[in-house]
Amino acid sequence: MAHPLQLGFQDAMSPIMEELLHFHDHTLMIVFLISTMVLYIITSMMTTKLTHTNTMNAQEVEIIWTILPAIVLITIALPSLRVLYLMDEINNPYLTIKAMGHQWYWTYEYTDYENLEFDSYMIPTQDLPKGYFRLLEVDHRMVVPMESPIRMLISAEDVLHSWAMPSLGVKTDAIPGRLNQTTFTMTRPGIFYGQCSEICGANHSFMPIVVKSIPLKLFENWSSLMLS
Amino acid sequence: MAGEGEPGSEKSFKLLGILDVQNIPCARESVLYGSLGSLVAGLGHFLATSRVRRSFHFGMGGFVLTTLGCWVYCRYNHAKLRIQQRIIQEGMRNKILYESSDFDPESKQNKSQGSHS
């Protein structure tokens, strides 16, 4: 999860997020080089004694500063499109979970085999046990089996919400009357936190999302326990 | 839980405030080689022509090109390594799943060796 004052991404917990991190590194290096070059050009212009007050045309430099940025944009666009299409690949999910946004809690439905449905409310600060994360913990976490492709169907019952999980690289709008689909695969066990990402009223900041990733065998035990 | 993930516990040094050379794979090597390339290009040009200003321009160009070249090469190899890691991981997972079953690749290898002998 995020640590205080964190600016960068959280560690990747899904293959898509790993690809996004790598694309971000690639783009950041290009941005760094362009920034360095611009800073150098500014310094160079500020420190020259040369002046030229009647430039009429500059065909060569115009060609250079048209072609080079086009090449830079293509260098950024190609990996970007690759990740975009990777995110849309069909991957035969093992499990489908529906997440319904309400004011101001989430409902998770596991209806593939039995009808398992539960609400997930934020734990208020006054009821939070020691050592737990303020404004992030919920009473019932969404549990998923690790290393299995999961399909999420996200919608809402009242107003717009958004189901976001930074460590998975997922942010999907929950729109009333519409089903949005996203897929992910958890690569490691653990507990991961996200928050509602579409303004939805007074308690928009107080409807977090917690995903717990566990081995398949433990997931089967959990779902039997929840159904009983 | 209290001390985990605090900013001080993760070392990060950000060039121009954005590029974390300690935690981004290949970034440190690229910038170091780029600096070396910049020095070689700039100094070399100055020694050849004694033109200070233009040597700085060459140094800058050398830095950009060397950093970019090293970055692309290193990231390409890094990506190949990651793909190989994933294949090995998948193979290890399948080995445990398929051991002693019809899908076990080791049993297929043993059968083919047996048929050759």
From TrEMBL, chain A:
Location within or outside the cell: Mitochondrion inner membrane
Keywords, in A-Z order: Copper, Electron transport, Magnesium, Membrane, Metal-binding, Mitochondrion, Mitochondrion inner membrane, Respiratory chain, Translocase, Transmembrane, Transmembrane helix, Transport
GO MF entries: copper ion binding; cytochrome-c oxidase activity; oxidoreductase activity
PROSITE patterns with a match to the protein in the record: COX2, COX2_CUA, COX2_TM
Ranges where the Cytochrome oxidase subunit II transmembrane region profile domain occurs: 1-91
Residue ranges crossing the lipid bilayer per the database entry: 20-42, 63-85
Domain Cytochrome oxidase subunit II copper A binding span(s) in chain numbering: 92-225
Protein function: Component of the cytochrome c oxidase, the last enzyme in the mitochondrial electron transport chain which drives oxidative phosphorylation. The respiratory chain contains 3 multisubunit complexes succinate dehydrogenase (complex II, CII), ubiquinol-cytochrome c oxidoreductase (cytochrome b-c1 complex, complex III, CIII) and cytochrome c oxidase (complex IV, CIV), that cooperate to transfer electrons derived from NADH and succinate to molecular oxygen, creating an electrochemical gradient over the inner membrane that drives transmembrane transport and the ATP synthase.
Record-stated family: Belongs to the cytochrome c oxidase subunit 2 family.
Protein name: Cytochrome c oxidase subunit 2
Organism, scientific name: Pelodiscus sinensis
Gene: MT-CO2
